[in-house]
Design goal:
The chain is mainly α. The protein contains 5 helices and 4 strands; from the N terminus they run ββββααααα. Helix content is 66%, strand content 7%. A hairpin with a 4-residue loop joins strand 1 and strand 2 (9-11).
Length: 184
């Protein structure tokens, strides 16, 4: 396999590399290469798996803490946080599939700001529709109280998602789909 970075190009087999830490890979000559990790190992499905797993684990912790601070037992809050995280992941899969199917049938497929806002709003409204009844039942509160709680959580998660993405890209690099192409 040919691996290149900004300064050098070398041939390295997968067997010659050992992942020592999430951000370091040591090649056959022992040199630490964070850039190699970002460019080779953190792309495609692996990147998505690390992203969604770390995002949701941290989200479960935040959800549990927030619900505990609001007076619910930690055990109950943790179970509800895991359940809501699972619902959010499944809804994300369904919503993105449906949206991309719709998008593929449009004359203009450009991802404009309006289309991105439509996508995000549709996701959040659908998620609220799924989570509000679950929260109302699980926490023995009214649908109105569950709606207020979930709207507050949505506001928190807007900031959390923004910050998480910035930090994730800083640690693991941006995905190859977002990298500028170098001129020939």
């Amino acid at each position: 396999m040919l691996i290149s970075s900004r300064n050098a190009t070398s041939t390295v087999s997968a067997r010659q590399m050992v992942v020592v830490a999430p951000s370091l890979i040591f090649s056959h000559n022992g040199a630490a290469t964070t850039e190699l990790f970002k460019e080779y190992f953190m792309q495609g499905a692996r990147r998505k798996l690390v992203f969604v797993t770390s995002f949701e684990l941290i989200a479960v912790i935040f959800n549990t803490l927030i619900l505990s601070i609001l007076g619910h037992s930690t055990t109950h809050s943790g179970g509800l946080a895991i359940a809501s995280s699972t619902v959010a992941m499944l809804w994300n899969l369904c919503w993105n599939s449906a949206f991309e199917c719709w998008e593929s049938k449009q004359k203009d497929r450009t991802r404009t700001i309006f289309r991105r806002v439509l996508h995000a709003a549709g996701f959040e409204i659908g998620l609220l529709g799924l989570l509000v009844p679950m929260f109302a039942y699980s926490l023995s509160i009214s649908m109105r109280q569950a709606l207020v709680l979930n709207v507050d959580l949505v506001m928190f998660f807007l900031v959390y998602t923004f910050m998480f993405n910035l930090i994730f890209d800083k640690i693991f690099g941006i995905p190859s789909s977002a990298k500028r192409l170098e001129p020939c």
